[in-house]
Amino acid sequence: MMLAVSALAVASAAVAATAENIPKKKEFRIERGMSKQAMACIQCHKQESPGLFADWAASRHAAANITCIDCHQADPHDKDVSKKHFKQYERSDNKWGVSEYKIPVAAVVTPKDCSRCHPDEVKQYSRSKHAKTNIIVWKIDFWMQKGLNTDTERATGCYACHGSVLSVDENGELDKQTWPNVGVGRVNLDGSLGSCSSCHTRHRFSVMEARKPEACGQCHLGPDHPQIEIYNESKHGAIYDAFGDEYNWNAAPGTWTPGVDYRGPTCASCHMSGSGTVMTSHDVTERLSWETQAPLTVRPENFKPLPAQTNWKTERDKMKEVCKQCHGQTWVDDHYVKLDAAVETYNETYYKPVKAKLDEMYEKGLLDKSNPFDQVPEIEYYFLWHHEGRRARMGAAMMAPDYAWWHGFFECKHRFMVFMKEADEILASGKPAHKYEPFPGTGGDTKRPNMPMN
User: Fold this and answer.
1) What distance in Å separates the CA atoms of residue 12 and residue 23, rounded to the nearest whole number?
2) Are 251 and 280 in contact (CB under 8 A)?
3) Does 365 reside within a domain?
4) FRET label pair with 443: which of 57, 132, 283, 338, CA 20 to 30 Å apart?
5) Is residue 20 part of a domain?
6) Number of domains present in the structure of the chain
7) Which residues are within 8 A (CB) of 236 and not within 5 positions of it... i.e. 6 or more apart?
């Protein structure tokens, strides 16, 4: 009998131990202190848009009991309050769609909304070039100023990265020409600039995602600013490809440390993340000592369309401090010697002579300023600085030799020779350059949007 009882006890213990390891159904349990309106939002979206719910449920927001209405609830008089959403509280097929849960919500979550919990990040972001990208294109871009592309071309291309200027239609709903949009320089109806979900996509809002180069590569790519391609070619990109799956992407904000959490840097590591004595910042204008995207390379504080409120020497020292987390002082200093030489080569050998010749043709009436893209010298000039010239400078800055040379300075040489031959022939003949007509795809609104311009 004793043996039977002992055997039974052992068996029971084994079953109990095994039961502890049996997987249980994973459920999101609503915290009891949540308001009934917040609970209704979650339960309704769990049913209506399960992908959205799943993203939120896996987020740090959910872990901190931050719900839909903490970000989306609006004042009843806000311009972007969704009137369509009020109809959700008149449903008979969803127990959460009833009037007792009715609150005003806005689809657009703006940096001003995010600033309630992230004031420092939003303040830094607001002074960055990212927040001002829509402003920049309207200040300097002939495509916008002269209506040389269509509103559709802008909506599907330009505004997807630069951000749209949000507006409402005659029904009080967000205008389809301006929404949906998560452009980094979006102009919001509450006066704020930008969209945090450009980098931290909703509704996960992951710091891991924003740390990876692919987040930046959504916009920083292509023939005119191929930073993601340049990064992929560089040693930094090669290390990321080899070891990126070993990085600690989920380290707490402000604690992501080179040599501890990651081996080779990403875009965010150099331009935003804290490193050594350099503090984390959401102002990507910091740490820059040249404007390598401008026609003539200048210091950021001398970029006339949008002068940076920084000192290039101070910012270079910050970037050098970041570099020194993995490199020696001599290596870092010598890199900048090469970059400065590349900038001087571009400015003096290629850009300035071409710009001088272009200006001479304009002064003599041999080029027409009404459309700066419909005569060969104008097009060649634009490609020289906007494509090849940028690639040469950015390739040098980010250590991608193929982009610095074959896609950069080599192409600058070809563009320079073609331009000079065409320009000299036009100047010698005294006849205006051929004007290509008709110029296709024009008619974009030339009225500057109602937004700040500094």
Assistant:
1) 19
2) no
3) yes
4) 132
5) no
6) 1
7) 264, 265, 266, 398, 399
Q: Would the CA dihedral through 325, 329, 335, 337 be positive or negative?
A: positive
> Cβ(222)–Cβ(158) under 8 Å?
no
Diameter over CA atoms, the chain:
119
For residue 397, give its domain range: 331-429
In a domain, 366, yes or no: yes
Whole-number Cα distances in Å, 1 to 5, 7, 14, 302 = 6, 10, 20, 94
Radius of gyration of the chain (CA): 28
Rounded Cα distance, 313 and 311, in Å: 6
User: Within a domain: residue 359?
Assistant: yes
CA distance 340 to 347: 11
Model confidence pLDDT, tens digit, residues 264-294: 999 999 999 999 999 999 999 999 999 999 9
* Residues facing residue 73 across a β-bridge: 105
pTM for this predicted structure: 0.89
Which CB contacts under 8 angstroms, 24+ apart, belong to 58-63? 58/204, 59/203, 59/204, 59/205, 59/206, 60/205, 60/207, 61/203, 61/205, 62/28
Q: What is the pLDDT of residues 252-272, one digit of tens each?
A: 999 999 999 999 999 999 999
**Rounded distance between C-alpha atoms, residue 360 and residue 29, angstroms:** 72
- Write b or e for each residue in 5-37: b if 16 or more Cβ atoms lie within 10 A of its Cβ, otherwise e: eeeeeeeeeeeeeeeeeeeeeeeeeeeeeeeeb
Quote the tokens at residue 28: 């999101």
